[in-house]
Design a protein that fits this description.
Structural class: alpha+beta
Shape: extended
Length: 533
């Protein structure tokens, strides 16, 4: 019996040792699996964060690139002033542009005729400026109003955006510092950022970030996407080489390994708290990205506002010029027609007030707040617009037909805003039909009801709207006109929707385009009746 007990006592330490080794082996295997999973999840999280940052940076840079088109449009409005080039006006505008947009290094005007030459440049002696001949050659096959990229010198970090200034043999040029274009907010990007031209030439070559250990290569995270700009289809890239310390989350693995040696409830609690902390970090990162994106959107609105001012004030300024010239002729004529001169001056006053109202509305374009609405008859809105534009339409040889107009079609709107939207539609229709045969140079305006909405319909007999334009009809900076800015319909939509309405465009069954502005019908509150009891 004593001998058997001794044998049992000798076996127990052996079995206990084997059990300990099995537990140690199981713990080691579980820890290795956990380490692998933790490393994989960590790398995927880093990649997800990089993709999110890349998408945000891509949106911001795409908007900056679109601003270049808006800037060229604004400069083109000055360059196309009749007569010799007003270099002084161009210089003032260029100084303002470069103050607000430091990434624009050079603004130039180039004559692209038989002997190309530079007419104006903010840096005439800069070595990175492209030759006038190169600008002319790049624009030789491009239509007016289209911006294209002219690559800069290799390794310079610059590229050029060029555009023909209307039908004149003039070209506009912006030299862009690509490093400033892709510049991000401090702390936003931990990867190397690069920019590549369409042909694969590196405008800004990324220098991979991260570290490495001898004999060990970590994973490489990357992001690539073409900018959302038709004129500057450059490729944005982010690259990051992960070092050993970045790839392997040692502290996480240690925590998991320790948790495996504790009881199940402690491990569960550690995992739960970790998930909450990770969610909080992601939420904080997302909030910071949204704040940066909101700031970039406000800056982009400045460029859009500048283009909107040039677009919207063109008509009242042209009308004021016409009335002023007519008044001057009347003053010089004999006998002096005082009443006609007074009418011309009163027309100028009305147009100046209208221009002021347009400026107030354009300020509201980037300033939150509801418009000041008042009950207005839809027929009166149509009448005001017809009185304003009838002379311009008649000068184009276009017949303007008005009616029928609903007598009780009252809407609660800001009159100037809706009139401006309707004015844009009528002017677009006149431009669409003025080159057609006389029987097709006709515009019809009418009002009606559709449920609880008052509709103002503008129809023409022109070529209609192309199918590819219908889906993107109200997008800003898209125009089929050679010198168009692509802002008229976008601004009209914003004005109508700000007044609680909607605007739609389409084609008539028998040819031509039809645009409809629908506004909520305003019904006056019935007067309270006192009881006669």
């Amino acid at each position: 019996m004593t001998e058997t007990a001794n044998r049992d006592m000798a076996v127990e330490p052996t079995q206990g040792g084997r059990s300990a080794w099995r537990w140690l082996a199981g713990w080691a295997v579980a820890s290795l699996i956990a380490a692998g999973l933790a490393t994989y999840a960590h790398v995927q999280a880093l990649d997800g964060q990089m993709q999110a940052v890349g998408q945000t940076l891509h949106r911001v840079i795409s908007q900056r690139a679109d601003q270049h088109d808006a800037l060229l449009t604004s400069i083109g409005a000055v360059v196309r002033v009749p007569g010799p080039l007003r270099s002084d006006l161009v210089a003032v505008l260029a100084e303002s542009v470069q103050r607000f947009y430091p990434r624009v290094r050079t603004i130039a005007v180039v004559e692209i005729g038989a002997e190309p030459k530079v007419l104006f440049s903010t840096h005439p002696d800069d070595a990175i400026n492209p030759p006038a001949g190169a600008v002319a050659a790049r624009l030789a096959t491009e239509p007016p109003g289209r911006s294209v990229v002219l690559p800069g010198a290799a390794g310079s970090g610059f590229y050029h955006v060029v555009k023909r200034a209307g039908s004149e043999p003039l070209a506009l040029l912006l030299t862009v510092d690509a490093a400033r274009l892709i510049e991000a907010e401090p702390g936003m990007v931990t990867a190397a950022v690069g920019l590549t031209a369409e042909d694969g030439t590196a405008i800004v070559a990324p220098i991979p970030a991260g570290g490495a250990v001898a004999g060990w290569r970590g994973p490489v995270l990357d992001f690539q996407k073409v900018l959302g700009s038709q004129s500057q289809p450059l490729t944005l890239s982010l690259t990051r080489n992960l070092g050993l310390a970045e790839t392997v989350p040692f502290s996480t693995i240690a925590a998991i390994a320790a948790a495996l040696g504790l009881v199940a409830w402690l491990g569960h609690r550690v995992v739960t708290e970790r998930r909450k902390a990770e969610a909080a970090r992601r939420h904080a990162s997302l909030s910071a990205d949204e704040a940066r994106f909101a700031q970039a959107t406000r800056v982009n609105a400045m460029g859009e506002l500048a283009s909107g001012i040039a677009h919207e004030l063109a008509q009242p300024i042209a009308a004021i010029l016409s009335q002023s010239q007519a008044g001057a002729r009347l003053v010089r004529s004999e006998p002096l027609d005082r009443q006609a001169v007074i009418q011309a001056l009163e027309a100028n006053a009305r147009l100046a007030k209208r221009a002021g109202a347009i400026l107030d509305r354009l300020r509201d374009y980037v300033r939150p707040g509801a418009p000041e609405r008042q009950p207005t008859n839809a027929g009166e809105l149509v009448g005001h617009v017809v009185a304003l534009i009838r002379g311009d339409v008649a000068g184009r040889g276009v017949h303007l037909s008005v009616g029928p107009l609903a007598a009780d079609a009252s809407v609660l709107v800001e009159p100037i805003a809706v009139e401006q939207a309707l004015h844009n539609l009528v002017r677009n229709a006149a431009e669409a039909v003025e080159a057609l045969a006389p029987e097709r140079r006709r515009i019809d305006i009418s009002t009606g009801f559709d449920g609880g909405m008052v509709e103002i319909v503008v129809e023409d007999r022109g070529p209609g709207l192309a199918p590819e334009l219908l889906a993107r009809l109200f997008e800003p900076f898209r125009s089929t006109k050679p010198n168009g800015m692509g802002l008229g319909l976008a601004l009209s939509q914003r004005l109508v929707e700000a007044n609680g309405g909607r605007i739609a465009g389409g084609n008539r069954p028998d040819g031509g385009a039809r645009f409809t502005i629908a506004l909520p019908l305003h019904r006056a509150e019935p007067q309270r009746r006192e009881a006669a009891e």
